[in-house]
Fold this protein.
Amino acid sequence: MTKEQIYQYYLWSSKNENPNFSRQEHRQFSRHWTKNSPLNDKSRIKEWMNQTIEEYYDHDGILSLTEDWNNDEMWNKYADNGKGICIGYNTRKCLDF
């Protein structure tokens, strides 16, 4: 995010969380959090992204519809080093009405 996007986010947040603030107080809140935001810490953002991805994979998994089903490297990456499951479909039979 750019500094302006971060500022706008905190301005929006301040207006929602602090409806009784004056215009100046909203701006002050936004400037403070833009400067001190964890969004400025690249290592923190990377950590959040990795955590979010892991939580997504643990909860939802991955669906791969590849023709290259016999690619060991792909299975290692997307099937959690062989710990995942594979469900195979014969697409010709699926489309045979």
User: Anything to note?
Assistant: The first helix runs from residue 3 to 17. The chain has a mean pLDDT of 84. The two ends are 49 Å apart (CA to CA).
